[in-house]
């Protein structure tokens, strides 16, 4: 079972433009797509399409449009009921695949709601299950909330993946000695935040075919107790680092449509492969193929297995020395 948690869920509204976005001008939308959003919900959506056992845990009012959207996506879920609406996030996509996001901050989670979320996760998962903590935090929880949750889940015998950013990610990095997750999924900029190096330089190197800076940075997190680091590096691909080695994955050729949900789909692909006991190289192959599959879809689309090109996803082992 893979349980996902989205602390700050949303309705994701994607607006497609026929020409490049003109800042300060009048931009006409050619199509709009609304769907259930939040990183954990996206992960569960991809897992459902792959036939994996999953459940999404998130806070929202029982009658919120988000709840209906999750039902329509056939995603099993546990609702932590609240009396404030889920946020709506806007994504604007341009014909060349450029994506601009405008995200609401989300509704506050008070202490009672935070405890209810934690209890719902502990009730849904049993020892050995995966729990994926995904996305930003709404107002209310302290920056170290994910770190405290990881520490408690480890004591409960759960396997934990974390995909977050900014202050919650930095706070987690400060507590790795007690709260190191099994999987940490930063992008290049976030990887730089985590280990105190130049994130843009990591991404620039990967764009030029040099993945060693990303791998060396990820190894620092493995040395501090993280079991595996999946560093997603945009169109260049991704790096997976464990105590046993490092691998780079290059995506198959695609026509990019929208990057929304690509990182979420990468995490879904990795978790799917891990539950099948595949080796690290094949786990990375699934992660990269799922991420690129999402990039080829419009809106907040997540790929089904027949939209994932495993055969043309290249995996190479990296010598870290």
UniProtKB/TrEMBL annotation:
TM segment ranges: none
Record keywords, A-Z: ATP-binding, Kinase, Nucleotide-binding, Transferase
PROSITE patterns: PFKB_KINASES_2
UniProt GO cellular component terms: cytosol
InterPro entries, sorted: Carboh/pur_kinase_PfkB_CS, PfkB_dom, Ribokinase-like, Tagatose/fructose_Pkinase
Domain Carbohydrate kinase PfkB: 8-305
Keyword Transit peptide: no
Gene3D superfamilies per the UniProt record, alphabetical: 3.40.1190.20
Keyword field contains 4Fe-4S: no
Segment forming the signal sequence: none
PANTHER family: 1-PHOSPHOFRUCTOKINASE (PTHR46566:SF5), 1-PHOSPHOFRUCTOKINASE-RELATED (PTHR46566)
Protein name (record): 1-phosphofructokinase family hexose kinase
Organism: Kocuria coralli
Organism ancestry: Bacteria, Bacillati, Actinomycetota, Actinomycetes, Micrococcales
């Amino acid at each position: 079972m893979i349980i996902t948690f989205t602390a700050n869920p949303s309705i994701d509204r994607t607006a497609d433009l026929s020409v490049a976005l003109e800042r300060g001008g009048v931009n006409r939308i050619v199509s709009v797509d609304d769907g259930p959003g939040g990183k954990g919900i996206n992960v569960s959506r991809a897992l459902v399409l792959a036939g994996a056992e999953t459940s999404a845990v998130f806070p929202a009012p029982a009658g919120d449009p988000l709840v209906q959207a999750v039902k329509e996506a056939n995603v099993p879920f546990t609702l932590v009921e609240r009396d404030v609406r889920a946020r709506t996030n806007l994504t604007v996509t341009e014909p060349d695949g450029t994506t601009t996001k405008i995200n609401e901050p989300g509704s506050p989670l008070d202490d009672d709601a935070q405890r209810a979320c934690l209890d719902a996760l502990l009730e849904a998962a049993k020892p050995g299950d995966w729990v994926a903590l995904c996305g930003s935090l709404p107002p209310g929880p302290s920056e170290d909330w994910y770190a405290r949750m990881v520490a408690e889940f480890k004591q409960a015998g759960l396997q934990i993946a974390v995909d977050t950013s900014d202050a919650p990610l930095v706070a987690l990095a400060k507590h790795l000695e007690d709260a190191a997750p099994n999987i940490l999924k930063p992008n290049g900029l976030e990887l730089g935040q985590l280990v105190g190096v130049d994130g843009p330089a990591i991404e620039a190197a990967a764009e030029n075919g040099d993945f060693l800076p990303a791998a060396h940075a990820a190894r620092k997190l493995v040395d501090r107790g993280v079991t595996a680091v999946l560093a997603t590096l945009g169109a260049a691909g991704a790096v997976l680092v464990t105590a046993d080695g490092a691998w780079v994955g290059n995506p198959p050729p695609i026509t990019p449509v929208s990057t929304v949900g690509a990182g979420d789909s990468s995490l879904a692909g990795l978790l799917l492969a891990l539950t099948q006991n595949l080796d690290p190289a094949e786990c990375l192959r699934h992660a990269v193929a799922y991420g690129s599959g999402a990039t080829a879809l419009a809106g907040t689309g997540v790929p089904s297995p027949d939209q994932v090109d495993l055969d043309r996803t290249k995996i190479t082992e990296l010598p870290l020395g």
